[in-house]
Automatic annotation (TrEMBL):
One of the record's GO molecular function terms: threonine deaminase activity
GO biological process, one term: isoleucine biosynthetic process
Domain of life from the UniProt record: Eukaryota
Species this chain originates from: Triparma laevis f. longispina
Sorted UniProt keywords: Lyase, Pyridoxal phosphate, Signal
InterPro entries per record: Ser/Thr_Dehydratase, Ser/Thr_deHydtase_PyrdxlP-BS, TrpB-like_PALP, TrpB-like_PALP_sf
Names of required cofactors: pyridoxal 5'-phosphate
UniProt-listed PROSITE patterns: DEHYDRATASE_SER_THR
Ranges where the Tryptophan synthase beta chain-like PALP domain occurs: 57-352
Signal peptide: 1-24
Pfam families to which the protein is assigned, alphabetical: PALP
Protein name in UniProt: Tryptophan synthase beta chain-like PALP domain-containing protein
């Protein structure tokens, strides 16, 4: 490895190289931000992601990074977590948490809350870790995901409660607490976020030394963007991280801007094709503070723009993605900074592909 490259990237590169990942060609240090590397939470997320990748990589797919240079003036890459086992990125975080449970924790009731994807991931992780569990789902979960979960675990393993994710999460926590068990958050846990951060490690490896200028990530509770941003900012501090939210339910974005977690009634929370990112977040969610320094920009997307993102992936690659993934694609399409200049490199995280046929037809029609 080139000594000059090592010097520019600093200690983070040595950590990555030691774990067997590719070295990046860095921009001159004067053009890159460096403050991220000094934040304890950021360092924790990055180092945890490296550790968790070694733990889970034999149980997950290394998903494709599709490339297109026919759109706009820059190069854009799409990380296809829609092709991940269980159909979304959530398996990474679920495995990271379940495989770290103590023997004592495994004896109690393990619960989680989900809009579908996290539940599917937990079911697979529970099987891998040889534990049982109950999934609490909000009333607005898609029928497709609900049926898929029931087919996997039966009626007894699924509980529909509350109107949105915040209410189902509260119920799952309460059930675990009463039984002396363990609640697995979809996002409010650094181990979960670090599992999602392994996507960032894979992307940088798959880019083969190419340095990304922008990364577009769909945002719900914030576990995905926090984990990936922790890795990206450690290794490519100058890369711009952009959070993409549905305009109909932008809780985390608005909470970050308010400097506190907004509760129901304080932010718009309406139906959206990006159901996987909809709803409120925990009052104590660490992702609010983390995103306040890890996320550079935010973009809100209308329902028409989200549908346009889904249509783009089907038209360009014949890939079937869900609305939450369309939200990230739409963010890239809307953001002119992501398409400027022949040498611009953008990455879009396509977070999932679990979508009902009828809904998919509506979005691409």
């Amino acid at each position: 490895m080139d000594n000059g490259t090592n010097a520019n990237l600093g200690p983070a590169l040595f950590l990555l190289a030691a774990a067997g990942y590719v070295a990046l060609r860095s921009r001159p240090a004067s053009t890159r931000k460096t403050t991220y590397n000094k934040n304890p939470l950021h360092c924790t997320l990055y180092s945890k992601s490296v550790t968790q990748h070694q733990l889970i990589k034999r149980f997950i797919r290394k998903t494709p990074l599709l490339h297109s240079k026919e759109v706009g003036n820059g190069n854009v890459f799409f990380k296809m977590e829609s092709r991940q086992l269980t159909g979304s990125f959530k398996l990474r975080g679920a495995l990271s948490k379940v495989l770290m449970l103590s023997e004592e924790e495994k004896k109690g009731l393990i619960t989680t809350a989900s809009t579908g994807n996290h539940g599917l991931a937990c079911m697979r992780a529970f099987a891998q870790g040889k534990v049982g569990g109950v999934i609490c789902l909000p009333g607005n979960v898609s029928q497709y995901k609900l049926n898929k979960l029931k087919a996997l675990v039966g009626e007894g393993g699924v509980k529909v409660v509350g109107g949105d994710t915040a209410e189902s999460e509260a119920a799952a926590r309460e059930d675990a607490g009463k039984a002396g068990g363990c609640y697995i958050s979809p996002y409010n846990d650094t181990t979960i976020a670090a599992g999602q951060g392994t996507i960032g490690l894979e992307v940088l490896e798959q880019l083969g030394g190419v340095v990304p200028d922008n990364v577009y990530i769909p945002v719900g509770g914030g576990g995905l963007i926090t984990g990936i941003a922790g890795v990206i900012k450690a290794l490519v501090p100058g890369c711009r991280v952009v959070g993409c939210s549905p305009a109909n339910s932008p809780c985390l974005e608005m909470s970050v801007k308010a400097g506190r977690v907004l509760r129901e009634g304080e932010f718009k929370n309406e139906n959206t094709y990006s159901s996987g990112t909809a709803g409120g977040i925990d009052d104590d969610s660490f992702t609010v503070e983390a995103c306040s320094f890890l996320v550079d920009d935010w973009i809100q997307l209308s329902e028409e723009e989200i549908k346009g993102g889904v249509r783009f992936m089907f038209g360009e690659f014949k890939e079937v993605v869900e609305g939450a993934a369309g939200c990230g694609v739409a963010g890239w399409k809307k953001d002119e900074r992501g398409k400027g200049g022949e040498r611009g490199v953008s990455v879009v995280v396509c977070c999932g592909g679990n979508v009902e046929a009828k809904e998919f037809a509506e979005m691409i029609g």
